[in-house]
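Fig. S4 source data, part A: sequence.
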Amino acid sequence: MGRSLVYSVTATAMILSLPAQAVEPADVVSTYADIAEAMYADALASAEELQAAVSAFLAEPSAETQAAAKEAWVAARAPYQQTEGLRFGNPLVDEWEGKVNAWPLDEGLIDYVDPSYGESSDENPLYLLNVVASPALRVGREQVDAREITPALLADHLQEALDVEKNVATGYHAIEFLLWGQDLNGTGPGTGVRPWTDYSLTHCTGGNCDRRRAYLEAVTDLLVSDLQDMAASWRDGGAARADLISVGPEAGIGRILTGIGSLSYGELAGERMKLGLLLNDPEEEHDCFSDNTHNSHFYDQVGMVALWNGSYQRLDGSVVSGPSVNALAEEKAPEAARLVQDRMAETTAKLEVIRESAESGRMAYDQMLAAENAEGNAMLQEAIDALVAQTRAVEEVVAALGVSVTVEGSDSLDNPGAVAP
């Protein structure tokens, strides 16, 4: 017993005296792939819990089972949003992402809408298609048999039909609309208020309750199936992992930084935040039916921090970690690495202010967008500025490491006059 203890202490001292080993880019890329695998496994697990909650709601529709399904949807968003830093650097992820997280959507494609929605759209011939009410659909020149609403119908015939991006028939936001309904409050308080009776076969409201039930079941099943595909793609031998490894360590580091920089700048700071602020338009809110946008933005940032630090905490509390791009940057350009850490901390704090305000009920995200809400506008602008500064810090690391990165832009940031008067 005593010898073992002395040996352990001595061995530890020897290890501590060894010089630190250089961070290998290949090991950083391997950690990143392991984290991607864990992130999508968690996103899948939470989507399966949502699927179970939706099944329970459809089995016994009530206000209580609808509320449980909504809670499961909100819970499922947190792990999925953390995966978004993987998007822009990995072509297979970016091509797939629209199946599960495309937005904004034209609600009239899916179901009934309020008269204030309008009767037509110059940009979308399917603006009022109403799949729920229509067993036969005309999609361009194609006559589509929609008597049975199936995952294949949604994915193959309706998702981004006619190449219109707002024809969103699948994914989290289609489910969100079906659970909450339209949010007709503008920049005032309140979410969508779809009644649970829209899914009741005995107390049906809204008409076509049997078909609405079929749509909700099909779109939820499809979400789970799509996440199963992506989770498998990051396992050993999977297509996404193999594609990442095939480009080599240096290009792999470039992919990591491309994903973080592009989500931070063009996507989150630009398309998801600055555009809505420029237009003062709650329709540009990411989770607009549920008023969950504050969480979605926050967990985007949590995911970027995890990918930078090479450390991800799973839903079960375990941690996947290893050599990180931060460690590599600290070795090659310590000042630039510290700047990223500082900027990430600042951004997380600014997004947490928005999140706390919304979670407390004091001010929801769509209320922050109101033209006359100086306080809310300032909260959003401060977070946008922090995200931009975070991206600039990442770009300093890119320059120091000498890797190739192209950060996605956004007219909202780069040419605001093109999107707002």
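Fig. S4 source data, part B ends here. The radius of gyration is 23 Å.
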